[in-house]
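Lab meeting, action items carried over

1. Structure of the three-component assembly. Owner: GW. Status: complete.
Input record:
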Amino acid sequence: MKNKWLTWLVISLVLALALVACQPEVQQVEVTRLVQETVVEQVTRIVEGEEVVVEVTRVIEREVEPTAAPIPQGGFIIESSFADASQLNPILSADSASSDVNSKLYLGLVTIDEVTGEIIGEIADRWDVSDDGLIYTFYLRDDLLWSDGEPLTAEDVKFTYDAIASDLVETPRKSNIELVESMEVVDDYTLQVNFTDVDCTALNNFTLGVLPAHAFAEDFSDIMDSPENTAPSVTSGQFVFSEHQADSFVTLLSNPDYYKGAPNVEGWTYRIFADQSAELEAVLAGEIDVTGVGPQYVSVIESAIASGDPLEMKKFFDDGYTYIGFNMANPQNPQPGWEDLDEDGEFDPDEPPLEQEPHPVFSDPAVRKAISHAIDYTNIINRVVFGEGVQAVSNVLPAVEWAYDETLQPYPFDTALAAELLTEAGWEDTNGDGVREKDGQQLSFTLMTNAGNEVRENIAQIVKDTLESEELGFAVDLEIIEFGTVVENLLGQTYDAVIIGWIGLGSDPEDSNFWAYRNDSPGGGFNFVSYYNEEVEEKLNQARSLPGCDTGERGELYRDIQAQILEDAPYTFLYVPLGNVVWNTRLQGIDPQPWLTYYNVEEWYITP
Amino acid sequence: MASPEAEVEPTITLPRSSAAEEYTDRWGSIYAAEPESFWWSALRQLRRDKLTLLAFAVLGLIALMAIFAGVISEHILGVNPNATELLATFEGPSREHWLGTDQIGRDQLSRLLYGARISLSIGVLGTAVAISLGVLIGISAGYFGGRVDDAIMWFINTVSSIPTFFLLLIVAALFRLSPASLVLLFGLLGWIGAARIVRGQVFSIKEREYVLAARAMGSTDFRIMLRHILPNVVSILIIVTVRDIGILILSESALSFLGLGVQPPTATWGSMLSKSQQYFRLGPHLVIFPGLLITFTVLSLYLIGDGLRDALDPRLR
Amino acid sequence: MIAYLIRRLLQAIPTLIGITVISFAIMQLAPGDPIQLLTFNPDMTEASRTKLRQQLCLDRPMPEQYLIWVLGDFRGECAMRGLIRGDFGTSFYDKRPVLEMIAERIPATLELSAVALAFGLLIGLPLGVSSAIRRGTWFDNASRFSAVVFDAIPSFWFGLILILIFSTRLGWLPVGGRAPLNVADPSLLDRLRHLAMPALVLGVGWLALFSRYMRAETLEVIGQDYVRTARAKGLTEWQVHVWYTARNALVPIATLLGPAIAGLISGAVVIERIFSWPGLGRLTFDAVVQRDYPIVMASVIVGSVLVIAGNLLSDFLYVIIDPRVRLE
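Predicted assembly:
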């Protein structure tokens, strides 16, 4: 008995230490308690041949079951943000602030796994896919309630996606249902979705929050201007809406009917700041429970933690990357990437790619490669991005393990090699003005980036300084301009080179938007570098609609694609940023994961 | 005080107080008669004003440093203001970098010196454009009167009713601003105060005998304006100008804070200060020095403006 | 009196028309297509863009767009009822009526401006009078100098320094926001704690102006006949200052109120950002950056209306205070 107790103690101590060591924020360490009791026992002894009952008093030690201390209830989680959340209809919202709030109000048909980013069920408990990959049958949970007590059924899901399809509804989500032919409600908790084409990213399109059909007009006529869009009264997520003060805060209250159990906290408040420095001070002053900070503030938070501030921080890779994009077509004459045979201005599937008029500088792959070699990635990431990122190699994110080729080597930083590439390609400074030229064309270009993004501005200035060195002999004009104008020049394809980034790429590597010639459409398409490579084009299409969507096979295709894109160098890939979650330790139970922070918010609590 | 109608037209040039409105309704043309002795006594008054003299000295020093920014950077500091050095970011003041380095390893002092050129030029030229426009429009309105005056006053009332900083920020955000276009923008938004002053003066002077006499003797309108009306408003305009330069420097920094000022790689004090604001805890020297320079410069301008007013306003002697 | 005010109101009409023309013109001259920016999203189809453009009447010729904006679309092809019927349009981004969004922000801006103005007046005016009375003393010099110093600091820098001292270091005042979060009925003290720093930074420039102005006016009034008379009548020095000097010196201050309101609304753009104050300035700035044209145009108009109202108020006060002005 004694031994057993000792073992328990040791185990609990080790456990406690281990927990403290790796996760100091966990307070509730259950240590087995030992209680001393005085017991009076009746013992039968044999005394001189007779059985005698004697009373013996002794002290024993007894192990008792730990009684868990009750988890504190109530209080508000205060999250700080930089943008106001104004559109609380999940099928209309496009900004990240609104999506943040909506994810706490509405359940999706499916959601993403917080650790792997894979699609997992939420409203849908499970689903089947037909052999040809064209019919998905979703089996829904039958225990879900709207906050007004109505059950959440397949009708709600169908209503939501039919609304997106409706002509009365203007939403950027229309592409989510591009390949959906029809949705059929089999019964209250079974939904069948028919696709026109195999799409391996199909499930990613069903993470949107599902609307309560009974709170909107059946014919979708009020979707665009329903009061539910700003003050939703019927929701299904962890919280219910309480109040929104424009540019100040959004407050949600915990939903007692949440299917995983009501959150411990009374509510959640999204506090909106307008100035980054002020936001940081609010975090340091303890006014904020959870937030994310910019890379320049990470060391400030780290030293605050080191000096005993009650803060914690966890870092994750963002699902995006920052890059220098090169316009490979003539910016004086932007053309669509396809031959517009029927002259309707729109791409039709039978229209072949059109060879673009070349860009005077960037149509030469040697120039693009030289720039890729000229960038001091390590120090840019360490100094300008404050170490909060890793070098990006090509277009697939390292987090997407099944598709990422970890053997692929990025362009090494080698100024001499860069200069050699230029010279070999015929770019030489023949007139002694410090700038190389070839056939009368100066090696000069305009580098554009958006004002207000300090990291990009700084990278732009370093790139200019680097490329203008005597050895490399470029002439670079900086255009640090307001985002709207950057977008206009980008989409209009009237720029030379740009420093910009993609974010929110998700856990599927499908990104033909950026590379397919059908998306090389001045004014609207996202292949604004005018990239075209027959092999990449084909493999992108294959990988997107591979019957069975086997990740092994798709992974092979994406590995080929990323190698080819790296070789073609339409972008100089810079880095994948590290994001972070910072929280005040009065908030407990929080356990941020790479893809989601709030997945277990019902377990969070605030220590008094 | 004259009748309220003419005087209560409020004026505002830029976000904070502009000097212009202070003087609109307070200046007669008292000293039109004896300009010589007027300027002489003003100078005497100014020489007794220690604070103003100190402000002149500070401003002069800053202006000299701006003018010789190139020489100082190259020969005394031995640095290039645009050379980045990734391995030397956020360094504190040292022998090589007297005021330390910035977020991408550039020498802060030489950037401040070059920035002084841009900041001061924006202030001075912007005010110059504003005052010239104001004088031109004010004289036209006052001299021609009638329809011309009505149209100009309508325009003045309209523009001055729009919160100026709203206009400034809208235009700055929608159009790309170079230092030159910022000068033009400040000029286009800032002329109203001066125009009002000048118009008021012209109205009060134009019926005077010497102007009537000049006209009778066949002087052209242009000549009359140049010879008789302009000198009367010069002293008010000097004061307005000095303060407005300060206000423009502050406005430029406020625009930079909003991310709408002059864009890199051109450095202004305002853009340096607002960009480094976020690095306060990584490199306090990047926030303190540009902030102090702006404050000292604007303070000097304001003090000079006050001193000049004391010296030039005969009623306060 | 009433006739005078009505005349002033009527005079504001051409001004308002001018304001609508100017704000419309700026938006038209601005480079770039707002729809393109609005739909910087790989998922948006070209057809949606065209449709959006039609809905917003952006496919019409420019003069027609102006008339639709001001008077409304009589043909009912795009949903705009016109400024004159109180329809300031719908936000490109929030899809909400612009007037409603502005109405939400006005109280915050007015509250901040009013407190800043009160701060400027309550400290600036007495400071100016005392300076004038003690002209040339150390007090005079110190008060003039300190007022100018605070006016010369870039306001966003000043704001951040205050936050560093009073919020992070001392923990006395909240970093920003208009009221404590999740408190149903904040006390006056709570509101003042939130107002303290922004109102100080916004008001300090006006404090300087008011005290400078008051000083000059007082100096001028002190030398005038009726003050000498009052003194001769045996009133004490302070009575003279309070009843005669100050009152007469206040007259031109009244004319400053209009410009002060314009200046406060302008200055609020920066202050509201540093202190996360949910006002008109922030709405305008965000809208400008996002190119949410309906909001930008509407806030220019609303801001101008506030200024015009301030000017009217100023005229009105002027008439009331100035004993020498009589109205027929």
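2. GW to write a short summary for the group page. Key points so far: Chain A touches chain C through 53 residues (CB under 8 Å). Chain A has 13 helices and 24 strands.
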